[in-house]
Amino acid sequence: xxxxxxxxxxxxxxxxxxxxxxxxxxxxxxxxxxxxxxxxxxxxxxxxxxxxxxxxxxxxxxxxxxxxxxxxxxxxxxxxxxxxxxxxxxxxxxxxxxxxxxxxxxxxx
Length: 109
Description:
By secondary structure, the chain is mainly alpha-helical. It is built from four helices and two strands, in the order ααββαα. This is SPATA20 isoform 9.
């Protein structure tokens, strides 16, 4: 997180583009909110256990779960040079074996 914050800060200093300033601020706010210990110091990472939905019991990696629809909406760009019409979302789904049913057994979740 520190390296990203520095890189975005430097990009802002060079370019003056507020996007980079906003990214640096967001990273530092996240670190202060989620990775700081009340006695001082910082955690290196967050636990992957998270509730799939508010009020539910935490499960491994639930925070990082994306639906097929979300992937397709977030990555609609065409893949340049593809031999057939293909979006970035479709490429990601093919590469990682993502399907509507998911890519792991429900018993593993």
